[in-house]
Structures are given as structure tokens and as C-alpha cells.
Write a structure and sequence with these properties.
Structural class: alpha/beta
Strand order of the largest sheet: 9-8-7-6-4-5-3-10
Oligomer: single chain
Largest sheet: 8 strands, mixed
Order of helices and strands: EEEHEEHEHEHEHHEEHH
Shape: elongated
Helix content: 40-55%
Strand content: 15-25%
Radius of gyration: 27 Å
């Protein structure tokens, strides 16, 4: 039996997935994918991999959908996904399909294409989610990464393909109950945490050593003097040369 849980927005959640445990590796891969292929208004998308543990969805890996144009008529997206998951299985990496991700701008992501895609995922795999990453809001200083699922009411509308105003009104579906947000917890493995701690410790120690190094302080002082005096000395020599010519 499904239990109820509150989301970050205060709404109750009635879903087979109550929480998402997201590996830090997945976050970095999504950001890297956008930085490499997100040009202008281009959106990036990819596949989420992981496993379901009781009512927790653990997303442990992902891979991107390659950018392709209409000229790439031979590209088979389904075959590409199958080959990628087969390759991951061979190296003993979680390869179960648990959803997908997409970038967006200023949190505007609700489109007919997204609804159709999430309906297909959620209809085939009940626990599937879509991760929405906003690079613009993230660049302002706070990671914007949200997980959503379609509500049961919207799933019925997608099944009937009745997106008319009357159909939405009849099903009592509005902006506030189209999606259910699933809480995300970002987790790193113990080895990654140890590595980050060592890197931070070395960085801090190096900075302290550099500040206590007298030669580095003198070198910085000399460089500053050089920058300020070089231009003024050049102007002085030029003025003397001009004065000598005029006289």
C-alpha cells in the first residue's frame, strides 16, 4: 500500500517512490553534458540508471542522448540506449532504466513533448522520474535540480490523449496537480568523500604555506610596483624625448 509523504513544497506524495538518492557522479555528468553540448537555447537530455530499494529510487549513473540533426536519418535512439546499457552491464555498473533528465531555462519545462516522454517512461516503469536541471539558476549560486513524476490524474489524461481545456477541467487537473515533486538527497560514496577531504586539506595547507613564504610576498610586492611604474616611466621618457626635439 502506498503511503503519504510531504514534498519540499508541502504537498502530500502518493507514489511508489518517496525519495531519490542521487549520486554526486550523476550530478556532475549532467552539468558536464550541458556545458559541452548545450548551445544557446538547445536542451540536453539523457538516461538515468539505478535501482529501486523499497520506496527509495537510487540513481547511480547516467548517459547522454547524442545531439543529432534531421540529416542523421540512420540514427536509432532505442538501439543506442540498448547498446549503452549492455556495455554498462558488462563492466558491472547499474544498468536498470529508472528515468531520464533534461535541461531547462528559468524552470520553464512543461511541454507536450515532456509530458509524452514522461508518460511513456512512467507507463513502462512505474518508478520512473524526470530530473530537471536549470543551468541559469545554478549559475546564480544554488544548484537547481528537481525530480518530478506525473500525477495519476495526468497519467489518465495522457493515456486518453485528451489535452483539451474541457478534458483538463473534467479531470480537475491544473498547474498545481500536474506533477508531484520527489525529494532528492545527493550522496557520495565513502571513497569520494575521502578524496574530497584530502583535496581540500591539501589546498588549505598549500594556501597557508604560500602566505607564510616571505619570498612569495616580496615577489608579489615587486610585481605590483612594476605594473604601476612601467607605464609612468614610459610616459616620462616620451615626454623628455618630445621636449628635446622641440628645443
Amino acid at each position: 500500500m502506498a503511503s503519504h509523504k510531504e514534498t519540499p513544497s508541502g504537498k502530500t506524495l502518493d507514489s511508489p517512490v518517496k525519495q531519490i538518492q542521487l549520486e554526486g557522479l550523476v550530478v556532475m555528468k549532467i552539468i558536464k553534458h550541458y556545458q559541452e553540448e548545450g548551445q544557446g537555447s538547445e536542451l540536453v537530455q539523457g538516461v538515468l540508471l539505478g535501482l529501486v530499494v523499497e520506496d527509495r529510487l537510487e540513481i547511480t549513473n547516467c548517459f547522454p542522448f547524442p545531439q543529432h540533426t534531421e540529416d542523421d536519418a540512420d540514427f536509432d535512439e532505442v538501439q543506442y540506449q540498448m547498446e549503452m546499457m549492455r556495455s554498462l552491464r558488462h563492466v558491472n555498473i547499474d544498468h536498470l532504466h529508472v528515468g531520464w533528465y533534461q535541461s531547462t531555462f528559468y524552470g520553464s519545462f512543461v511541454t507536450r513533448a515532456l509530458l509524452d516522454s514522461q508518460f511513456s517512461y512512467q507507463h513502462a516503469i512505474e518508478e520512473s522520474v524526470v530530473l530537471i536541471y536549470d543551468p541559469i539558476k545554478t549559475a546564480q549560486g544554488s544548484l537547481y535540480l528537481k525530480a518530478y513524476r506525473l500525477t495519476p490524474k495526468l497519467m489518465e489524461i495522457c493515456k486518453e490523449k485528451d489535452f483539451s481545456a474541457d478534458g483538463l477541467k473534467k479531470a480537475s487537473v491544473g498547474n498545481e496537480n500536474m506533477f508531484e515533486e520527489v525529494p532528492i538527497v545527493i550522496k557520495n560514496s565513502h571513497l569520494i568523500n575521502v578524496l574530497l577531504w584530502e583535496l581540500e586539506d591539501k589546498s588549505t595547507a598549500a594556501d597557508k604555506h604560500e602566505l607564510l613564504n616571505l619570498s612569495s610576498q616580496i615577489n608579489t610586492y615587486c610585481q605590483t610596483i612594476k605594473e604601476f611604474t612601467s607605464q609612468n616611466l614610459g610616459k616620462l621618457f616620451m615626454a623628455e624625448a618630445l621636449q628635446g626635439t622641440s628645443s
